[in-house]
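Tokens help. One example:
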Amino acid sequence: MLNGIAADGLTRPYGGTFLQFSDYMRPAVRLAAMMEQPVTYVWTHDSIGLGEDGPTHQPVEHYAALRAMPALWVIRPADANETAVAWKVALERDDGPVALLLSRQNIPVLDRSEVAGAEGAEQGGYVLWDSAADGPPEVVLISTGAEVPTTLDAARQLAAEGTRVRVVSMPCMELFEAQTQAYRDQVLPPAVRKRLAVEPGATMSWWKWVGIDGDVLGLDRFGASAPGPIVLEKLGFSTENILARAKALLERND
């Protein structure tokens, strides 16, 4: 139905449900991508942070599965400001569908006087925060969605211990890949090979961006039934574990 409305050209249709149930919509989404129809999909409850709903309602493989679909832009914004930018991107696109992956969790609105402006999300990925301007980072932490604030907390702790660290918010891999090589290298300097990606889903999407010397804190198993914060902590998506993984990466001699 949404594809038919989009094909008519008079309106910009959108629809949505829990991200987990995007599986049921996949044939229609794939058709929208093939037909280059500007349909917006709003998929909420986007992580294992759902908690008590349990593994049946917790998306794990869905980020990677959607990113594998040609012509579909998948955007997982970090806060309300990135979400506004994501809506702008969706409304301005006229040659294909956009998927917005939104959280049910209580996500803080990042203080943009302390980090970069959310307009950087239009490039798909951007430098959110850098601990030092006097040299390249020793490690880059890359994240999406609700995990960006937690990743930022870990980065600040790491910086307080004397490490030069950069945080990159990458809400949309497709848009980031569409940027010039110069821009991508500015955000992810080729010489900085210590990179840690943080996202509570299948890790396969991330190795392209972290490289063979990087690491991915993801989830290649199903979730669990417990209060959301407990699930996230037990499965490793805490400030403390992100900090530990970043330190382990820095200590590697490869």
